[in-house]
Amino acid sequence: MTLLVLDRVTVARGRRILVEGLSIALEPGDAALVTGPNGVGKSSLIRLCAGLLPPAVGTVEAAPCALADARLALDDELPLERALRFWSGKARTHESMAALRLDHLAAVPVRLLSTGQRQRANLARVVASDAPLWLLDEPANGLDADSTALLGELVAAHRAGGGAVVIATHIPVTLPNAVEVRL
Amino acid sequence: MIGALILRELRRAWTGGGLITPVVFFLLVAVLFPFAVGPDGALLSRVGGGVIWAAALLAALLPVERLVTPDLDSGILDQLTVRRVSVPMVMLAKTAAHWLGFAPALMAAALIAAGLLDLSAVTLARVEAGLAIGTVGLAALAVATGALTAGLRGAGALAGLLMLPLAVPLLIFGAGAVQQGTGALKLLGAVSLLYLAGAPYVAAAAIGAARD
């Protein structure tokens, strides 16, 4: 089963064409690495895959996906665990928090988390979603070396389990056997 | 997901002070009238029903800004869409939650306002019945207006200009029911249902435009 198919897709924001005639197909275990300088349309491409932005030309077919972008989508005033529980069941929330080493922060309100901790919470929401397709926009932003390595392990495990991932980043990331999309 | 969303909206409304402010504002407007027209009991009880309705409309403007904008900014609406929850459904859930919070609070405050305005028991019963029905339409309008003005500067003032003219039918039939009873209540119900049916789609279209 193909998890993501972009067929000759053109992405436009306003009157500007950002991506033209792009085709990608991701099977279980595949990964795509979207690279390029700031403002070139990486985030727009991710939003297109998530179904949040319609393509100007072409078609997009995507399996159920999980999105991590610059916005956390967790209630600031709630403790981290309760905020994550809005998006997933109890067991999966705990597992994903453990996977991202967030256990000790369960009772801390989201607004008090540091940049790196917020980014890990963002990734925990993706892990807990159990969606086969992960769409990660600058997932390494704000992460320290250990957490970046952890991100690599989680992505590898997700691919080994039959998932696919699209990562957009301006920082060089090691992603073995990935399709590279240079914008 | 929809149940969780309604509970979340209710929690945020009560804990964030989003309901206390409109209720206090409603009472303040109701208090201003006796000061303005003087302590004439007969006059106050005659215009009291209408005063409560006008105050309710003004109070319904206050929560508009917190209904949609924060969720659009924090990415929660995007995440719900990614999980294939349809935007009109989200807006309907927001309307339901807003009504569940706003209507009881306003109806309780109307009891106090009725005392200040020297309303009779019959008038009060009609006002409360009208508020129970009319706040459904007000909640739907508030959510649609919140979505239309989401992300704009000066959203609060613009929300008033957008929402109050559309709320005029609710005011006419709501205040009309105070004098005429059930006939006006039925028309009030019809207007409320119309807004309830249309507002989620208007709001969803506005969200779609805001995302572009």
UniProtKB/TrEMBL annotation, chain A:
Translocase as UniProt keyword: yes
Pfam family, one: ABC_tran
Keyword NAD tagged: no
PROSITE patterns per record: ABC_TRANSPORTER_2 (PS50893)
GO biological process entries: cytochrome complex assembly
SMART domains xref list: AAA
Span of domain ABC transporter: 4-181
GO molecular function, one term: transmembrane transporter activity
Entry keywords, A to Z: ATP-binding, Cytochrome c-type biogenesis, Membrane, Nucleotide-binding, Translocase, Transport
Signal peptide range: none
Matching PANTHER family: ABC TRANSPORTER I FAMILY MEMBER 1
Protein name: Heme exporter protein A
Taxonomic source organism: Sphingomonas gellani
TrEMBL record, chain B:
Residue ranges that the Swiss-Prot or TrEMBL entry lists as coiled coil: none
Pfam families, per the entry: CcmB
Keywords of this entry: Cell inner membrane, Cell membrane, Cytochrome c-type biogenesis, Membrane, Transmembrane, Transmembrane helix, Transport
Keyword Ribosomal protein belongs to the record: no
InterPro entries in the record: Cyt_c_biogenesis_CcmB (IPR003544), Cyt_c_CcmB_bac (IPR026031)
Biological process, per Gene Ontology: cytochrome c biosynthetic process; cytochrome complex assembly
Molecular function via GO: heme transmembrane transporter activity
Recorded topology in the membrane: Multi-pass membrane protein
TM helices/strands, residue ranges: 12-37, 43-64, 99-117, 129-148, 155-175, 187-210
Locations listed in the record: Cell inner membrane
Annotated Gene Ontology cellular component terms: plasma membrane
Family label: Belongs to the CcmB/CycW/HelB family.
Primary role: Required for the export of heme to the periplasm for the biogenesis of c-type cytochromes.
Protein name (record): Heme exporter protein B
Species, as recorded: Sphingomonas gellani
